[in-house]
Amino acid sequence: MRTDQRITTAMTELLRRQGYAATGIQQLAEASGAPVGSIYHHFKGGKRAVAHRALEESGAAYLELLVLLLGRYDDPVAGIEGVFADAAETIESTGWANLCPVGTVLGEVADVEPELRAAGDRVIASWIEAGTEHYERCGLSGPDARSFVYALVAGLEGAFILARAQRSREPLLAAGRVLAGSLAALLATARPG
Amino acid sequence: MRTDQRITTAMTELLRRQGYAATGIQQLAEASGAPVGSIYHHFKGGKRAVAHRALEESGAAYLELLVLLLGRYDDPVAGIEGVFADAAETIESTGWANLCPVGTVLGEVADVEPELRAAGDRVIASWIEAGTEHYERCGLSGPDARSFVYALVAGLEGAFILARAQRSREPLLAAGRVLAGSLAALLATARPG
DNA sequence: ATCCCTCTAGAAGGAACGTTCTATCATGGC
DNA sequence: GCCATGATAGAACGTTCCTTCTAGAGGGAT
User: Fold this and answer.
1) Cα B92 from Cα B87, distance rounded (Å)
2) Of A98, A120, A170, the CB nearest to B150
3) How far apart are CA B172 and CA B176, in angstroms?
4) Residue B187 CA: distances (Å) to CA of A3, B46, B52, B147
5) Which of A97, A140, A166, B134 has a Cα-to-Cα distance from B105 of 20 to 30 A?
6) Mutate which: A150, A153, A187, vs B, most B CBs within 10 A
7) Where do the HTH tetR-type domain residues begin and end (chains A, B) (predicted)?
């Protein structure tokens, strides 16, 4: 694997576990196996640049993953519950590690690191756009689809926080159940009968 | 105001803006007006102890606030939309500051600071418990009420993150709309007619 | 063989970190 | 007046922080 890839991957992991401020360059060097000098060689902007890239890459990865997971089911409603159930399974089996560095970092640095906030903004916008198209294809109106995707992403990110704090799958399962019900109701009114 | 109160208040504000790791004792001293020595006099456990107290206090404050806001409307469904609309208004007028230190800090330190994670766990549990009772009184079954409250809190916390990242009220308004619809559907099946 | 360029490697620098420490101040009881 | 006590005040300590810098290793091209 290329060195800059190793660095980015290690940074993603560290961001998920402890956020941006608590992650040190020294720690990143140890975790990635690359010495400090190499990090600054590959990333001119230092720590911030590494985090920037990590956010972009994991944002893109989650976009693919989410589309894949949602499309795995014929029934969109089952898809929602499936995604949350999968997330609940994964988060427990990884020892309640955070599943999404984007949410963690944005919550922490939105007021302090404009560049990282902007990068996260773009990532989220890409999720919303792709998700809206997906649910339009399922039969929802444009505005309904967009609202639902916002609620979906917000519910997912929020449930990650709650599940990690409580070390319980319940927040994810509960949020999935409610959002699945919500989607069912929206679909019922959109294409009655 | 008592000194330890000034310290706690300042810490709450700093936690909301930049999280736990990025907040320094020196910065806390300047923000609160209390010198470093006084902070350690009032909080034996240092920085962690101050954050612990700040989480507990703002957790209790939000519990009161949420109950107050939800009870302001006769119609529970209107209450949901009202809470999210209020939050959207507030978050914009404060320059997209975070509204809830609990979510920010938990996302950041859950894996690294067991004591703070446990404190946040208790805060969230108190919200879920109170919220569940509230919606049981509205007519939902126990399990439905509990699931809905999890989805509500997760949606709020997640929408805070999205709104801050995008500097837009849309995530909050959209999540509120969807969750209000969800509650309406749950109420309709619970007490038909 | 020599030059050049990319990358590795980690020491050095200067600031900021959390914590501890001592010294001083204010106040209430005797 | 005098001591005890709780609070204030910030200097000092050792560590860690992010970044910069110098030195060298590796590999093509001339």
Assistant:
1) 8
2) A170
3) 6
4) 55, 47, 38, 13
5) B134
6) A150
7) 1-61
Q: Are B84 and B173 in contact (CB under 8 A)?
A: yes
Q: Domain B55-190 belongs to what topology?
A: Tetracycline Repressor; domain 2 (1.10.357)
CB contact under 8 A, A150 and B174: yes
DSSP category for residue B191: S
Indicate the pTM of the whole model.
0.95
Would you tell me how many other CB atoms lie within 10 Å of the CB of residue A58?
23
What six digits make up the tokens of B139? 């007519």
DSSP state of A43: -
Query: pLDDT tens digit string along B108-147?
Result: 999 999 999 999 999 999 999 999 999 999 999 999 999 9
Answer whether residue B193 shows pLDDT above 60: no
For residue A111, the 8-state DSSP code is T
Cα–Cα dist B138/B145, whole Å: 9
Instruction: Quote the tokens at residue B66.
Output: 């949420």
Amino acid letter for position B143: P
> What whole-number distance in Å separates Cα of residue B109 and Cα of residue A149?
27
Structure letter (DSSP) for residue A2: -
Question: Is pLDDT of A193 > 70?
Answer: no
Q: What letter represents residue B99's amino acid? A: L
CA distances from A20 to A28, A110, B105, B159, B164 (A): 11, 11, 12, 20, 17
C-alpha closest to that of A153 among A92, A72, A66, A75: A66
Domain boundaries, chain B: 55-190
Instruction: State the Cα–Cα distance between residues B52 and B133, nearest whole angstrom.
Output: 26
**pLDDT for position B67:** 85
Express each pLDDT in B150-182 by its tens digit. Answer: 999 999 999 999 999 999 999 999 999 999 999
Is any Cβ of chain B less than 8 angstroms from the Cβ of A47?
Answer: no
